Amino acid sequence: xxxxxxxxxxxxxxxxxxxxxxxxxxxxxxxxxxxxxxxxxxxxxxxxxxxxxxxxxxxxxxxxxxxxxxxxxxxxxxxxxxxxxxxxxxxxxxxxxxxxxxxxxxxxxxxxxxxxxxxxxxxxxxxxxxxxxxxxxxxxxxxxxxxxxxxxxxxxxxxxxxxxxxxxxxxxxxxxxxxxxxxxxxxxxxxxxxxxxxxxxxxxxxxxxxxxxxxxxxxxxxxx
Length: 224
What we know:
Belongs to the P-Pant transferase superfamily. Gsp/Sfp/HetI/AcpT family. Pfam families: ACPS. This is 4-phosphopantetheinyl transferase. Keywords: Transferase. InterPro entries: 4-PPantetheinyl_Trfase_dom, 4-PPantetheinyl_Trfase_dom_sf, P-Pant_transferase_sf. Helix content is about 35%, strand content about 20%. It folds into 2 domains: about 5-125, CATH 3.90.470.20; about 130-220, CATH 3.90.470.20. By secondary structure, the chain is α+β, with helices and mostly antiparallel strands. It has helices at about 30-40, 40-50, 55-75, 135-145, 150-155, 160-180; strands spanning about 5, 20-25, 85, 100, 105-115, 115-120, 125-130, 200, 205-210, 215-220. The strands form 3 sheets. The chain has a 4-stranded mixed β-sheet, with helices on one face. It has 6 helices and 10 strands, in the order ββαααβββββαααβββ. α1 packs across α3 (about 55-75).
């Protein structure tokens, strides 16, 4: 998997390669806001309007315009013609598993934090996450919920290095859970992913991705 490419909504790719990963920055929000009324479906527009913060709603709209733009380019469809659905949950069978495109085998994953979004497209199941590095107190709280080996490794690090390491572990776990289609329903202490070289999980490969300063990002891809 190549490093994320910055998506320019004014000049989107004609045919995104598979697999590929795309970073959506706040610079895209002006065009995202312009395209949203004719690109997003009614459910997405209601979700965007429900955010308490106008900036959060704008970030959501831009991310979903970007997602539909990439999916449409990959499938040869108009962005507004993309029908987003949910696959069955692998745990309970309910309609809240991995998001999917109706009538297509293409896989994708979307993550947002602040004004940033990360989107992955692939022929196999995939999950991505991007997060801001937490403050020391939040990092300490999150660390207490992790795998015992991860807690031990974090405790051995200098205090100033722990927030970044916690963020690295967190995005790896979130990307893996999103790839599985269960989100944070998977206990944080169940899988060891560490903050060093990414380990190989059963049927999944983890990849650390380049991210803007103060952030960490990761991708999980299903292995053949």
